[in-house]
Each structure stands twice: as C-alpha cells, then as structure tokens.
## 1
Amino acid sequence: MSQKVSKEQVAVHNKSDSLWIVIDEDVYDVTKFQDEHPGGKKILQRVAGKDASKQFWKYHNEGILKKYKSQLQIGSLDTKKAAAPPAPAVAPAPAPAAPSAAKAKAIADAKPAKSEAPLEPFGDLIPFADPSWYQGQHSPYYNETHAALRAEVREWVESEIEPYVTEWDEGKKVPDSLYKQMGERGYLGGLLGVHFPAEYTKYRVKSVPPEKWDHFHELIVTDELSRAASGGLVWNLIGGFGIGCPPLVKFGKKPLLDRILPGILAGDKRICLAITEPDAGSDVANLTCEAKLSEDGKHYIVNGEKKWITNGIWSDYFTVAVRTGGEGMNGISVLLVERENGGVSTRRMDCQGVWSSGTTYITFEDTKVPVENLIGKENQGFKVIMTNFNHERIGIVIQSLRFSRVCYEESVKYANKRRTFGKKLIDHPVIRMKLADMARQIEAAYNWLENVVYQAQSMEETEAMLKMGGAIAGLKAQSTKTFEFCAREASQIFGGLSYSRGGQGGKIERLYRDVRAYAIPGGSEEIMLDLSMRQSLRVYQMFGMKL
Ligand code: HEM
C-alpha cells in the first residue's frame, strides 16, 4: 500500500483488462472488482486511468472505502503528502478561525470567573449530530474517563462493526466473536445499571477503572454502539443481556450468581428476558405461563409460551416471568431457566425490523427449574419486573436518540453534497427546516435523558423506581416519537436512496424498519404516556404534592 505511483503510470491502466482509478490521491486497482461493482462496470471503465474522486463521492459514503480499501488499494500518488501523525485518542479541535483582538477580549471577558474547562472536542463537530459535549461545550456530567471510553468504543465500532453491519443485518446474525468481545472488553460488566461487578469477571474496560464506572459510562457504550445504525446489531449485543441479566444480579441468590454469572459476563453464555406472551404484552399482570412446585419441593415445573423474546434463539439462560400464585400481579414470580435442563424450544420469528436481534417464540414444556433459581421472592416477581423496566426503557431512549442523530447526521452530510434545481439540498429552506425540526427534538429529549440518568445514579434504587418511573416512561415515548419523526424526515431528504436497501441511504432505510421495534416493546407509547401521568401524580401525592 505504500507504493508511490505517478499520474502517468495510472493513466496507462485505462482499459478493462487493467483498470486503475484514483480516489483522494490513493490508487485502486479495480480490474477484478469491476464485474462485481454494484454500480456496473461501464461506469468504472469511463474513469479508467483517471482521478475519479468527484464521481466516487457522488455515489458512495465513507463506509465503502473503509470496507474495500485493504482489498483494492495498491498505492498512492507520488504527489500525496505524508499522512498526518496518528490522532490522539481524544481528537483535538481543528484550529478555529482567529477572532479579531477586540472580539477575543469580549469573549474572554464574558466568561464566568469559575468555569470548569470543557473536555476536548471529539468527532466530526457537526452541530447536533453528537451530544453538545462532543463539540467542546460545558457539561456537569462527563470527565476524562467518559471521553476516553467514548474514543475507545467509537474506534471499535468504526473499524470492526460499521463496515459489516449491513451484511449481518441481511444475514440476520452477528458473528458470535463480536459478542465474546463485548465480554472481553468489559462492556457486558458495565451494562447492568449497577456498579461494575469486578468480583464476577476478570475482564476490565480499558479506559475506566471499575471503581469509577457510573451510569454515564453505560450511556456512552450504548450510545456509541448505536452509531452503527442498526437496532438489530445493538439488540444482538445488549438486547437480551441488558434486560435479562440485571434482575439476576440484583435479586438472584449468591450460589446461583457464583455458578453462572462469570460465564455470562465473559461473553461465553447468553441470557435473555422472557416476559411477553402471545396474549400478554404491556399487560404484564395477566401473564399465564405457569410454574408449579414439584411434589418433592425441589423444582418448579414450567409450562407456557413466550413471544417476541430478543436473543431467545441463542440464549443459554432465560429470566422468565411465570405465574406461581393466583390471578393478577401478586401471583407472579421470576425464574432463571437453563436451556440445558431440557423442555425449552425456540423458534426464530420473522419481524419487520431489528433483523439480526434474533426475535424468538419460546415454548416451555414441563421445564424443570431448581428452586434455587428463583429470582427474588415467590409471588413477588412483579417488583423485580418493574424495577427492571426503568433500566430497559433508558436503554431504549439512548438507542432511539442516537438513531435519530444518525438520521439527522446522514441527512446533513447528504444535503451538503446532493444538488437539485441548481443548488445543494442544504441551500433549500425546506430542507433546513426539516433538519431544524429533527435537531430541536433530539436535543430536548437528550437533555432530559441526561437529567434522568443523573437522578437515577444519585438516588437509592427504590427511590429512583418511584420518583423516576413516570419521567422515564414519558421520555421513552418522547424518544421513540422523535426517532420515528427523524427516520421519516431523513427518508424524505434521501428520496429513492432510502427506499432501496443498502447504499448511501441504507442506514435510513434500515432504521426506518426498526422504528416500531422501539415504539412498541418495553411499553408502547400509549401505555408510556398514560403511565407517565398516573405514576408521577400518585408518587408525588405521597411526597406531599399540593393541588
Ligand atoms: C474503489 C472503488 C469503488 C468501490 C469499492 C465501489 C463500491 C460500490 C458499492 C459497494 C456500491 C453499492 C452501493 C453502496 O453500498 O453504496 C456501489 C454503487 C455504485 N457505484 Fe461504486 N465503487 C467504486 C467506484 C465507483 C466509481 C469511480 C463510480 C463512478 C464513476 C461508481 C459509481 C457507482 C454507482 C453509480 C453506484 C450505484 C449507486 C446507487 O445505487 O445509487 N463507483 N459502488
């Protein structure tokens, strides 16, 4: 790849039997690739031996070069300047245009006397495409460990995930090795909504010592993973674990944790949450999957069905809500079912979106579960489930808002290169209005999210469950509605490119299909909005609300 080539040498390779092109001063041999080029071989032959940068960027985004570079690049033009030294983990800001002396003084004078320095800017600096602290703005929530983690996860996603996401989504499977990496990188240990469980795993997150791990680190892992623009990918990696494992960690008995948690946190064994049934979705109190105690009192025998269970198809363990008592919420318990004990059948379901997440229909037939696998107390499982919902919903909020940002970011980039009616899309007021409407909703919801995360980590768990449940439910509805809005508006901006799968509008097309997977599970928008009012009013009545 270090080969230096002159323009004249490239120009010789101008026929289909030896076809070179130049993109951004790098030289590519596309002789063999031309037959498989999705845009056709003639279009490549027309630029054979020439600089094709302009044409290339018209039809592709950065992901294509990242994916094919190692395979097709044979060198660079001898006129290309040496590459800049590698960027530090946290990229410094590009030098801003120097303000006039008077203006600089005015800015300095206007600064509050005691202002904490903001963190270094990071990423592409497109306003609203990342949270504001990425653009060097002040924030009370983040410190150097958050910035380092952000760089760590982004590097991983950009190099090892993003280039392959489309393939995995279409193939409806993410390689198991990636899940294993989630364990080895320590991310699984950090996604439980509790302290980092260093006592149960030897793996550590490179940028953050366990004792410093907080809820904002968890937010960053989920947020940066979601930049891959695939609900299927995110749910494959954290969908089952993020909601199935916390109840085990918080309410499981120590011998059970000692036996199975290390394997789960290492990424060797998979776990999922099984609550929803063919006939009981948001109405959890009415579930019917039953568990009866065996005559010798050593096992529960489980019979029933569970539906739309994320990761079920690959899971070794299932955190299952069952009916052990009478009707309603006081007859529900939570059990940890182990596949290897038998009686568990799983079938993959075909759904509209989140294709690589493994949505599953499960049948339990006389499934034996040792009584030691009871999570929480018998007939008090409703509390376990309710505590878990806040964590699940915050995860959905983080993902929905990042997906909204991806829709916005892709739109801004595309609008700055696509020309219609003699000018760039970005120069049409109607397009800027769409972008503004996306940005204002994203920022409003994200600032609410940061506040909620801060409250959740500052409060004791029961207090957080009570006081924050209503707000989190409202925020969940706000975020999924924002996501739906952004997917729609981005799709209008991309036009036909987001109607076909793959290519420049591929992320938008995929996310559009994922919208319902966020608006419905974890509590549908309608249930969430109603709950946000009912719960907030009821709780604050307890805390002395005056009407
Ligand atoms: C290293 C060189 C190139 C590679 C690896 C490459 C790869 C691809 C890929 C993977 C696609 C499928 C769509 C996508 O995923 O974005 C595509 C489509 C396309 N490419 Fe290329 N390409 C290259 C160079 C070029 C050049 C130089 C041109 C124009 C002169 C071109 C024109 C097109 C067109 C018109 C499409 C179809 C776009 C659409 O469906 O809207 N490609 N290319």
## 2
Amino acid sequence: MTLLDVRGLTVRTADGRTLVDDLSLTVDSGERLGLIGESGSGKSLTTLAILGLLPDGMTATGSVDLAGTQIVGATEKRLAAVRGRDAAVVFQEPLTALDPLMRVGRQIAEPLARRTCLKGAALREAVRGALTQVRLPEPERIARAFPHEISGGQRQRVALAMALACAPRLLIADEPTTALDVSVQAEMLDLIDSLVRERKMSVLFVSHDLAVVARVTDRALVMKDGRAVEEGAVHDLVRLPREEYTKALVASARRLESALDLRSAR
Ligand SMILES: Nc1ncnc2c1ncn2[C@@H]1O[C@H](COP(=O)(O)OP(=O)(O)OP(=O)(O)O)[C@@H](O)[C@H]1O
C-alpha cells in the first residue's frame, strides 16, 4: 500500500525561482526510500513540502498525498493532525526540535500525553521507556536535564524519541547524522535502522552521502538542481550508476570510504 505519493511537486520562491521541479516519488508502507543529492539539490525543501512546513513566501504545487491527506493547500489545522501521527521528522540539528528552556523529559511527555492520555507516574514511566528505547543510559538523569546539558549525540536521540512518541507511520530523517561526531554517526544509523524495522515504519531518509543512505534504505532517488535524475535499488545505483551525476556521488562515497579505511589502518 502506498503511504506517501508525491506527484509533480514543484516548489517556487516568491520571485518565481523554481527550487524543486516536477518531482514525483512514492513510499510504500514499511518501505525505506533514500533521497540523495549534493547540498542545494532540493532535498530539504522536498521534505518540508511533504510536511507542509515550507518557509514563508515559498509555494508548492502538484500533489503530496500522505496517508490519504492532500498536503498541498491543506489548512494548518489539517496539517497539525497529520504531523506526528502520519509523519514525523528528525532534522540534522536536534536543537531545532528541542526547546532550550524545557527539561528533556517534559518535551517527550507532551506528545506522549497527547497520544496516550497517560498522566502522573504512568506518564513518567512512559517517558523513561521512550528514552530507554533510543538507548540513552541513565534515562532519569537525561529526563531532568535541559538540552544544553547533554551531548549532541544524546540530543539527537531525544529528538528521535520525540519523533517516535506518536508512533508515526512515516519517519522523515533529514541528514540526522551529519552534525554528529563520526564516532557516534554509525551508532545513530544503527539505532534508526533497528527502531524502524521493529515498528515496520516507512522511512524517507535524506542525505548527501550515498554510503549513509545505503546503510538504511533499499531504494534511492537521486536529486540534482531540484529534479529527480535517477532512481533505483541502492545496490544497483552503487554498482551500475547510469547518470554522470550518480557516478560522481558513488565515486566520492568510495573515496571517503577508502580514506576512512586508510585512517583506521594507521
Ligand atoms: N528559505 C529559502 N529561501 C530561498 N532559497 C532557499 C531557501 N531554502 C533553500 N533555498 C534554496 O533552495 C535550493 C534547495 O535547497 P535545499 O535546502 O532543499 O537543498 P538540500 O539538497 O537539502 O541541501 P542541504 O543539504 O545543503 O540543505 C538551494 O539552492 C537553496 O539555496
């Protein structure tokens, strides 16, 4: 069953520049699609358009059907009902999702309480469970902390716990590991991978890095200058890229991998 069906999505600025151009993609229930392309290729604007979160002044045309709701042109009320329940997002910078003045536990409690009607001790226990699920040690301490009191990797886990709190059918992860230290990137990818598998969730995973996309998704769509240039199984894209642009992405992922191999051999 198709969960997300994007057809002819076009995003324009107020002065008429086209930043996403006639893009179409689908994500089935339980499927994981990678969206890959260099910086500026339109990946983030695509994810924002899917959630109805485009910056002021930008307009979307075309169709974005998310679990039966048409997102393009939807009212804010309708969008609020969809976000969190049908799709939730983890951004590159966890601080965009977290309120700096609110303790971490309360930030997770709010969406949990909305979904489950839990209160008091039962809600506290559910928050603890949400923090444990994203493999945070000492969940009581983390729940009492403010965002600046925990590490960047821990903040990204908290953002993931918040995104998962309402059990969304689609997780959109927009460069979720790019801002993290290399040492914690792989752990975060493995965590996302195992949590979405356990929950049979669909994923739209955005990255400029083909090696990262290959770790979490089975199929990928390559974007350049706001357009889709190639789409296929990740395995095929890596082995037999058709487009010059995809070949360049594969070559740079290989260069990076061999540089890392050399580093670890030293
Ligand atoms: N608020 C904005 N106003 C004007 N132009 C924008 C805005 N946000 C993005 N753009 C432009 O739209 C294009 C696509 O940006 P987008 O952020 O979607 O790319 P991206 O592939 O996600 O890259 P990155 O990973 O660097 O964010 C770029 O040329 C960018 O400069």
